[in-house]
Amino acid sequence: MTKLCIFAGTSEGKQLAESLAGRGVQMTVCVATEYGEVSFGQLQDCTVLAGRMPREEIEAMLRREGFAAVVDATHPYAEHITESICSAAEATGTPYIRLLRESTASEEDGVFVADTAECIAFLKTTEGNVLLTTGSKTLPQYCEDAALKERIYARVLPLEDSIRICGECGLSADRILAVKGPFSRDMNAAMLKMVKAEWMVTKDTGSAGGYEDKIAAAKECGAKAVIIGRPVEKEDGFSLEETVSLLEEKLQLAPKRKKVVMVGIGMGTEGTLTGEGKKAIEEADVLLGAQRMLEGVKPAHSRKFTAIAATDIADVIERENGPFFAVLYSGDTGFYSGAKSLSETLKDRGIDADVTILPGIGSLSYFCAKLGRTWQDVKVVSLHGRDTDLVRCVKENPAVFTLLGGQTGAQDALNRLKDVGLGGLKAYVGQKLGYEAEAIVSGTVEELAAGAYNPLSVLLVENPAWKSYPVTHGIADDAFTRADVPMTKQEIRSVTLSKLRLTKGAVVWDIGSGSGSVSVECALQASEGHVYAIEKEKDAVDLTCANMEKFCICNMSVIEGEAPDALADLPAPTHAFIGGSTGNLKEILAVLLEKNQHVRIVANAVTMETAAELSEAAKEFAYSDICCVNVSRGRKMGRYHLMTAQNPVYIVTMQN
Predict the structure, then answer these.
(1) Are 450 and 483 in contact (CB under 8 A)?
(2) 20 to 30 A from 225, CA-CA: which of 36, 70, 119, 502?
(3) For position 231, what pLDDT does the model report?
(4) What percent of the chain has pLDDT over 90?
(5) What is the pLDDT of residue 591?
(6) Are strands 640-645 and 632-637 parallel, antiparallel or unpaired?
(7) How far apart are the first and last CA of the chain?
(8) Does domain 364-468 have CATH number 3.30.950.10?
(9) What digits encode the pLDDT tens for the residues 545-570?
(10) Are 323 and 292 a contacting pair, CB within 8 Å?
């Protein structure tokens, strides 16, 4: 295996090693401290050596190992080690590559000085506290001047050597800020304010070194920056991308496997973004997501693409260079997000990538925390681009949380609940959760239905009477809207539904729906499925639609037409009820079996002729059952109750 040596003193050195890991090259990475060794973790085909190496040791290692090249990714200001590496490489004939950190400095940033000595000379001409962000190595030089030492606050790494140097320089504990970066603009500003600094000393460390955040924080706090300029002789070299390309060509490396991280960004603000999510966004080569999400994150090094659909995101991942893609999803990646769809799309496309999914703080947990309640008893649904039976969910559960869609999603949902008699329930609407304009309102459903809400809203409704909701079929006949249209009566309907043995996800055909009573009951039982009510008579079609609206049924479609012709374009049924066949029983059964050989069929007959036809048809099925149901209903006559017999109904069940 080809050998490569990397001297890594910057984040770019680590990124280089990560880009080459597992691609057919054995890397030896040299770092100055144990802290640097730990930061590399466990990279494939990578050995990390910790400790400062004099030139002679570097030359001996290069001769012994026979590296194909040595990459100098040390800090721009580490002049001595760069000279040693370059000299040792020349002496051993090892190809030398300098990896540069790109400068982002401009003349407006502050006062530029050539080196540490010039910086000290300048600071002596000023007054006010100084925040020194250049580490502990040059600290003794600043502290040689007693007056300047009394003004200095040193920000150093929390390492034993750094703290020791601070102590040897005579800095008291309250003047030592022992912390590890990276530091955001806000963190830099907090430190400047804490020490009441009027001056901040930094180096031109580039974006990866947090230079821009330091300069922005200084301007925000009214402090002046003193920037130690880079040594001119070290400006020849290559960027990270150029170095990777150069090594790929020189060492004939295997293609880099793409890395895709799907990041749940919480409510879209930094405060609700997890540490893992933030790290992925900062390190990604390419960011993808909705425009409003991309606007909320600002890593300067990333390329951004607006893409929402899984196919569009996959197109970018397949097309673009760069091994690390971060895909942004609002809230939590496991809560009505596109993460699952993207994973399946990448697999279907044959895109070879390491996929990681990072959860975020979802609107459900965030909202319930704001309300001071738990959410283990909450039924979770979505009305965002989905047909969900919100009314039934609210009736059946102690609390329902729903994502909303459209400009008037909250108003529409609340009015729908109010119109079916649920206006007295307690409800909460959360608007623009996590943003500065966040607003939460509460009241009864009826009270809130009169309001206007932001399109970016969620709704939670509580129902203390949820346990009283009926779970069995058998709706009373007079609960339906009636007309001069045949109706399957309550008792027959109950036996019929029992024979159907519906599942939650059943796809049901109700052929000859009449009043729609069977369709409505089927839709209530098959809550995750769909019912197709087929009816040829216009009056019956209208009545079925009226009862569908009356019971707020969402998972039902009414088809006007005569079977079997009206059945051709419908999806395959899992269950079918034949309430009326108009002499087309054989043709209807043929279509049902063509769509699904194992469909469960229940048919009712009130005439002997139809019963005989069904009895003959049942012989062709692997399983059949025929029963005759005789129902008598009580009626009052004076002070007596008499039973009045109803027409007997034959119920035939058939299935292969």
Answers:
(1) no
(2) 36
(3) 53
(4) 61
(5) 94
(6) antiparallel
(7) 63
(8) yes
(9) 999 988 888 899 999 999 999 999 99
(10) no
Q: Which residue has the tokens 């930061």?
A: 39
Q: Are 382 and 435 in contact (CB under 8 A)?
A: no
Helix (H, G, I), strand (E, B) or coil at 553: coil
Residue-wise pLDDT for 336-383, tens only, equals 889 999 999 999 998 888 899 999 999 999 999 999 999 999 999 998
Q: Which of 597, 540, 556, 541 lies closest to 574, judged by CA?
A: 597
- Judge whether residue 7 has pLDDT over 90: yes
| Pick from 417, 499, 407: nearest CA to 456 | 407
User: 263: how many CB neighbours lie within 10 A of its CB?
Assistant: 29
pTM, to two decimals: 0.58
Q: Count the Cβ atoms, other than its own, within 10 Å of residue 144.
A: 10
Q: Which token pair is 330?
A: 């609002």
Name the residue among 576, 597, 580 with its Cα closest to residue 501.
576
Q: How high does pLDDT run on average in the chain?
A: 89
**How many angstroms separate the CA atoms of 93 and 100, rounded?**
22
Residues 6+ apart with CB under 8 A from 471: none
CATH superfamily name and code, 257-356: Tetrapyrrole methylase, N-terminal domain (3.40.1010.10)
From 3.60.15.10, 3.40.50.620, 2.60.120.10, 2.40.50.140, which CATH number describes the 107-229 domain? 3.40.50.620
